[in-house]
UniProtKB/TrEMBL annotation:
Signal peptide: none annotated. InterPro entries: Glyas_Bleomycin-R_OHBP_Dase, Glyas_Fos-R_dOase_dom, VOC_core. This is Putative enzyme related to lactoylglutathione lyase. SUPFAM superfamilies: Glyoxalase/Bleomycin resistance protein/Dihydroxybiphenyl dioxygenase (SSF54593). GO terms for molecular function: lyase activity.
């Protein structure tokens, strides 16, 4: 993943919610921090971009229910992360699913702004990170 874009009617509220969940502030806002129509975070081991865009710019209708592709983010503790997302106001889209004996496990939520957010335990991702780190 290089960039994922989510849409929200209230970009400022979405920025604050994701800052709380990710435990980091958005590093970029346009046109301003006080009245953003776009904000961006750097996330994960490779500092991928999470952009939140004002829903008025979405190429699809926003707000009629969960929307978007489910992009799964690797997390070290699936249960703890899922619990935290739910505590922060996300709603369960799909509970934890074990994908056989491979170690791959997924879950997904809908954030308070209608975006689908997937989380997973991904052994392949951990192998790649270990190889890159040497």
């Amino acid at each position: 993943m290089a960039t994922v874009s989510f849409y929200a009617d209230d970009v400022r509220a979405a920025r604050d919610w994701y800052a709380n969940f990710l435990d980091t502030e958005a590093y970029y806002a346009m046109p301003s921090q006080e009245a953003p129509s776009y904000v961006e975070f750097r996330i994960g081991d490779f500092q991928a971009e999470l952009g939140i865009i004002d829903a008025k710019f979405a190429p699809h209708r926003v707000g009629d229910g969960p929307a978007g592709a489910i992009l799964n983010w690797h997390v070290d503790d699936l249960e703890k992360t899922l619990d935290r997302l739910l505590e922060l106001g996300a709603t369960l889209n799909q509970g934890i699913v074990d994908h056989g004996d491979s170690g791959f496990r997924t879950a997904s939520v809908t954030d308070p702004f209608g975006n689908l957010l997937g989380i997973m335990t991904n052994p392949h991702y951990l192998d790649i990170v270990a190889a890159v780190r040497g």
